[in-house]
Amino acid sequence: xxxxxxxxxxxxxxxxxxxxxxxxxxxxxxxxxxxKAVAHKAIARKTGARGLRSIMEGILLETMFDLPxxxxxxxxxxxxxxxxxxxxxxxxxxxxxxxxxxxA
Length: 104
Hints:
Elements: H1 6-22, E1 27-30, H2 32-44, H3 52-66, E2 73-78, H4 80-83, E3 90-93
Helix pairs in contact: 1-2, 1-3
């Protein structure tokens, strides 16, 4: 894809993935290396911004199915290893009020 702009692809990646979690109480974070990996994947597929949705769905499909059954997930973090299929996203859980330890 001649003249492909990785920075624009990264921006589109952010926009494409924020929609599914925008209305929920779970945050979604893509590390800078993850955004670059997504952008490079889109460029390699010659799909550009239009193909980002498909790429993001591929990355997050299992997570989106698992998430409703998980309690207390506050944030999902995706890095380049996740984008490349070598790892699963990191789930960050909220601290439960009954788990707080008090000092003596």
